[in-house]
Amino acid sequence: MKRCMLTLLLLVAATALMAQNRYFAPLGMTVTEDGAVSYVEPHTILAVDVTVACDRTIAGPYARYAQKYLGVRAPLTDRVEWSVVGGALGLVDEADYLAIDPMPAKSRTELQHAVGGEEFARIRPDKKTILMPDTEDAARDAATLIFSLRKHRQELITGEAGENVFGAGLQDALAEIARQEQALLELFLGKQRTTTQSQRYFVCPEADKKQYVVCRFSPEEGLLASDDLLGDMVLLQITPQAQVAATVVEAGPKDLTTMDVLVANRATCNLSHGGTTYAEKVIPIFEFGRKVTVAVPRRR
Q: Which residues of 132-153 are buried (b: 16+ CB within 10 A; e: fewer)?
């Protein structure tokens, strides 16, 4: 315990010494082996990730008979609906940003809430006749099978189906009944598929601008370009702190060689759409900082 406390105290002391080291090179300053000093004013590049979900409903072939034979309402037409579900904020190194394709590829994760893709189960025709039933007759037969499956499941659970169905065999039988019932229900209720998609955008803050249209969003089309007026704005609001916190030690009267450098200011970044906040983070931003005079690092 004493050793852990001693280690912690040493770390705190080392951090305090670094904070007071006037020869610690600020970001953007480079000192070569021969002592030459160069400084390139740093810039802030924000990475903004917007995540949307696409809910797609595929109407079942017997949808208009769902109320009649199952007592439930079902969607009668296919429907696609998008929604904003999340976001993230972070910093990107300028060198990495310049190496990125200006149109980054979308990263997609699919969660399928459907069985067997977009194809629906088929009801086998009665082999006693070569005539195919019309749509309503097929819907009635499918509903009859659904209720029959439910009856068999109840018999298996209560033991009325026989004494030899138990253990793993019972679980497999129940799973197969559930699979068949789901396939038949989809004929009436349709299929639903949810897809989530994340798109990354880059924002370079400007000193006189605190609000940015990252992109636009439409419930029918999803994410759109920032200048596409068919969608509503996805906004990034930047609120700098009132005072820039001192992160470097300024030069004193005894320092002979000095240089003006830019110190970043912490700012609250808020990503929102339609009045809902999807990400908020405090990020140091150079464009809202201030110039300070520091001592040029010396090689010892």
A: eeeeeebbbbbbebbeebeebb
Confidence at residue 9, expressed as pLDDT on a 0 to 100 scale: 39
Measured CA to CA, the distance from residue 121 to residue 37 in angstroms comes to 73
Is 287 within 8 Å of 206 (Cβ atoms)?
yes
**What whole-number distance in Å separates Cα of residue 201 and Cα of residue 179?**
42
Do the Cβ atoms of 211 and 237 come closer than 8 Å?
Answer: yes
Which residue in this structure is represented by tokens 């005539």? 131
**Tokens (6 digits) for 159:** 């033991």
- Given a cut of 50, the residues of the chain with pLDDT beneath it are 1-23, 103-116
Structural domain boundaries in the chain: 23-115+193-295, 135-187
**Claim: this prediction has a pTM higher than 0.85:** no
Paired strand residues for 201: 48
